Amino acid sequence: MNKRSPLDRHKQIRARLARRLFVVRGWLVLETVWRAAWPVGAIVGAYFALALLGIWEQAPAFVHLAVFVFVVLGGAGLLWHRLRRAIWPGDADARRRLEESGGARHRPIDAVFDAPAMAAGASVLWRRHRDHMAAMAQDLPVKAPRLTLVYEDPRALRAIVLLALFIGALYAGPDAGRRLFQALQPPFGDAPRTVVLDAWLTPPDYTGKSPIVLHGPMAATKGHDEAAAPLSAPVGSMLVVRLNGGRQAPVLLAGEDEIPFDTVGTVDHRLEFALSDPDLSMLEIRQGGRSRALWPLALVPDQPPSISFAATPTQSRRQAMRLTYVVNDDYGVTDASLTLVPLPEGAQASGTPGDDRLEIALRGAQTRGEAASLVVYEDLTAHPFAGRLVTAVLSATDAAGQTGKSDALVFRLPERVFSHPVAKELVAIRKDMLVSPARASKETDRIDRVSRDLDAYDGDLTVFAALRSAYWRMNSDSSRKAVAEVGEILWETALRLEDGQMSLATRSLRDALDQFEEALEGGEDSLDQATAALEAMMQQFLSQMARQQSETAPMRTDGTQRMQVVGSDMLQQMIRQMRDLAAAGEMDAAKAMLDQLRDIMENASANSMTAEDYERMMAASRAAEALEGLSEDQRTLLNQTSRQTLVNRLREKNGQPQGGFDSLGVQQQGLGQRLNDILQGLGDGGMEAPGGLEQAMQAMEDAGRALSEQSGPGAIRGQAEAVRALDEAKGALEQMLEQAMQQMPSGNGLDPLGRPQPGMNTRGFELPDILDARQVERILEELRQRISNPDLSDEERQYLRRLLRRF
To answer: Which pTM value belongs to this model?
Structure first.
């Protein structure tokens, strides 16, 4: 391999140094320009700092323009002047900087590039010196430029400018870009320099949606904004735009339409535009040929509501039609109705509807944009359609006026069945009159005949007066209006004969519930009035129900009522809670509780039973309750006996005297006496005692004898057997009670208000509580945990037992 000659190596070193010197000289030029331009940069920075602080937006137009011209022209002149006076670096300056940055001495770069004339014989010495300098120069590093202004700005005034820019950026926030842009566009006329644009979309009120603020860039470009996600808004939203500034009136481009703004004064512009076209996809605001804002748009059409039957309508215990339906709409339903069309007599479920129809406005159908399952009660027993097959169609209307309908459903309307003979006759007369109003006058003889049979309705003067009034009304007028009025009289008379004032009280309570529901949307005064009226009607309803139930529920021979009376306190509490909820703005919770109260009222019924059955039920209930406490006390005595037996064994091993069982024997005798009282109470009530009670009595007697003989193990065996037998007997009594309740007319073991009868489990009924603060299961669990604590005192244990019995 041929080695490179010293001459070639020297040329390469020169070339490498030349490139480094070029870079160093560029750094020196940059330093010179930096030192010459820093005053101009400070002036421009101060100008922009004032812009960020909003000074130029508040200053008069001529001041802004003058300062802008001064900054531009003065800055340019100052920069030119300082650049002309600057001393520009040469090649020697670059060599000295490179040597200085590498810490080299004796100017090695000059030695590399020099070629002095020498006498013969000295070239060898020169080459050695040059090679030595070249080796030193080729390792010299190129360092960064020295952009320092310590000598040019010894007072550090530049820091003030930087601090002002920082404070201005914080002050301007997101508006910093716009203010800097406006600073570069000084005004040349009387129009304001800044164009302020505020825009928002206000959805229709019925949607319940909040206004949408539109953020659009000033002088937007279509290429930029079309790629953005479109704004979603309901059809019918109102676009409101306020624009201040500019010399020309702006316009709104909405699809193919161009809508001018309303101008107030010279620079204030306003526009309100309804977005009713669902195909509109772009909004743009232009002013003087400049795009001020651009928004892609996606308008969402309002969908029609949907409504359907959740189940076939049923009949409540008070003969009202119970209708359950599901309704849904994107923004909520305002009204719902039920249309009933009777099928021709003898038609099947698939028959053709007749011409007559009945429209019923459904209460409480207002929703707020989510699917809702609603329940409504309608008493149609007095309508001519009662008992007939009808075709039913549900309709729902939203705030936009759109209507949705359900599929047709065929079912039979509830019909009241009367048991009183005169009531049956009056209802038949009424039905014939309403079916054929033209021949209604022929029914006057039937009315006259029924009214004269005073014994048939026990000589009730009110019934007599009503029937005679209907008779003379039909004799004097046989028009359709008269027929309808007479039909109403006959229906009310039949109800009076059937259940006295109960039907009137039921109807009054229904009206009070409807008025209270309407008052939920009204003011506080109307709500108070509706609450007072509802409480009064509820009390009247309960009184009539108690009177009706007293005719069938037994009375004790000693005159004291033994049946469980309707709980008016609970219902009054529900009414007060509804009023408080409505006053607090919790309308949904108040309506939910109102639906529960309506369910209770519509399904209330008076249970009938014989006196013997009732006495047996109450005896079993009292016995089950007493056995629960007796079992707990027997278990406690068992624990005490076990503890004393263990202590006696320890004392026997240690040679100490043993303790006696006399006090425990006395307690055991007391428990046996309590069990004997329970057995006697069952016998007095005509209830056969479960077999477990006899076993428990025998086990208690064995335990008592063992305690009297000071035999702890024998007493423990007897007491454990007694606890087991008592628990079995209590379970047997509860099962007998449940079977008895299932055989009652209500069929579900509940009292007239849907609550469990005496001795039954209370978990099946939930008292409405708006704050969920009274949860029966949690209370029961907490009470059970506390009563199981062996360290409780007798007084506290008895108190917890009373609480458990309450719940």
So the answer is: 0.50
